[in-house]
Specification:
With 89 residues, the protein is of the alpha+beta class. The chain has a single domain, classed as lambda repressor-like DNA-binding domains (434 Repressor (Amino-terminal Domain), Orthogonal Bundle), CATH 1.10.260.40. The protein has helices at 19-26, 30-37, 41-49, 56-66, 70-73; strands spanning 4-6, 13-15, 54-55, 75-76, 86-88.
């Protein structure tokens, strides 16, 4: 029996560390952002605290929606963020 292993995530991942401040300044709510961007409110909440990360495409959509520079909204996850290895049958 042979196994083939693949990496799930190889692209940079971001924490949305300044999302809360940005939303407060604009009078917006996390639920509104989640709905507009097409992600769960739970994901945004966890990405704000660093418990989860988002890919660059999601972070960019949020920054564009809020009209702020990408770098003002998020921090790059330290080190590689390689997801769990998957066994391919």
């Amino acid at each position: 029996m042979s196994y083939s292993w693949t990496m799930k995530h190889i692209e940079p991942r971001y924490r949305l560390t300044r999302l809360g401040e940005t939303l407060d300044a604009q009078g917006r709510h996390q639920r509104w952002v989640a709905k507009k961007v097409g992600v769960s409110e739970s994901l945004l909440s966890k990405a704000r605290t660093g418990e989860r990360t988002v890919d660059g495409a999601i972070a960019e959509r949020i920054a564009t929606l809020l009209g702020v520079p990408f770098g003002m909204l998020c921090d790059l996850q330290e080190g590689p963020n390689i997801g769990p290895m998957e066994r391919a049958a």
